[in-house]
Amino acid sequence: MTAGPIAIALTIAGSDSSGGAVIQADLKTFSAFGVYGASVITALTAQNTRGVVGVDPVAASFVGAQIDAVLSDLDVRAIKTGMLAAEAAFEALSAGRVQDELAAFPECFRKSWLYDELYTARNFKPLMSGNLYTGAMMVGIDQVLFRGRAPWTLTHRNADHETLRPKSECTPIVYPKPDGVLTFDRLSSVFVSNTNHEEDQPSHLRLRDPSIPVSVNLAVYDGPETRYCPAGVYEFVQEGGTARLQINAQNCVHCKTCDIKDPKQNIEWVVPEGGGGPNYPNM
């Protein structure tokens, strides 16, 4: 039995001299998924974990020459590019701006094909948030009759984090223990996800106010982050009779539930180092 041809993916991005982002991070991610990575460099940067020192953009003609060289020789099955964000970042860096918002990125996104695809599916979740059968019928009308271009845009009545009820209004649910056959504990599931973050990398899960997890989340909601996180990232530990939230960021599978569901929007998920998974090779 012979192995099939290895999949080839192409990344088009700038080069990060510190190795934590763009081309370097993409190639590490490709490797983690068993994919051969080819690259086209759009800019050279002098940067480290503290910031960007300088940027030297590659001429458009040479970017095109790189693309032609790769595609004329390799059987590329997928192309990844961050050029929308890179365009906005280059504009900011050229103007001498640092550590501010890339205001041009939303406009670049709205003009892209990606926005068009997401726009046609914008009403799906609001329609399906109520009755299943009514929602399915309305989705059919939205997608088949209007082709996703209905003259209205539906929204949810509340943000997800606003729907969480205090523990005083709820009855605890006692779940059966995992049987190891059909149900499994969370840490076993994290192991299967092939998540492997470097222990010494900066935490990508940040607290805007470190006191809120105990004073609000634990006191009012009984620590919901310990339940809505599927990977056991959050746990409350006792130190000298006082509770403290411990964040096991290395377990994170990047579902971003904490960023979305935290009742006070106190948890901020930021992009971690690339190549750490999850990686589901059999999916």
Describe the protein's architecture and organization.
The chain is of the alpha/beta class. The protein folds into 3 domains: 8-111, UDP-N-acetylmuramoyl-L-alanine:D-glutamate ligase (3-Layer(aba) Sandwich), CATH 3.40.1190; 113-157, no CATH class; 160-269, Alpha-Beta Plaits, CATH 3.30.70. The chain is 34% helix and 18% strand. It has a 4-stranded mixed sheet with strand order 3-2-1-4. Strands 5-8 form a two-stranded antiparallel sheet. Helix 3 packs antiparallel against helix 4.
The shape, in one word, is globular
Strand percentage: 15-25%
Mean pLDDT, to the nearest integer, reads 86
Q: How would you sum up the major sheet?
A: 4 strands, mixed
Tell how many strands the DSSP assignment holds.
Answer: 8
By secondary-structure content and strand pairing, the structural class works out as alpha/beta
> Could you please say which CATH topology of the largest domain applies here?
Alpha-Beta Plaits
Number of domains: 3
What are the SSEs and their pairings?
Elements: E1 8-15, H1 22-32, E2 36-48, E3 51-57, H2 60-71, E4 78-81, H3 83-94, H4 104-110, H5 113-120, H6 124-128, H7 132-145, H8 186-192, E5 205-207, H9 212-221, H10 225-228, E6 234-239, E7 242-247, H11 257-261, E8 267-269
Parallel strand pairs: 1-2, 1-4
Antiparallel strand pairs: 2-3, 5-8, 6-7
Helix pairs in contact: 3-4
Key phrases:
alpha/beta, UDP-N-acetylmuramoyl-L-alanine:D-glutamate ligase, 283 residues, 34% helix, two-stranded antiparallel sheet, globular, four-stranded mixed sheet, 11 helices, Alpha-Beta Plaits, 3 domains, 18% strand
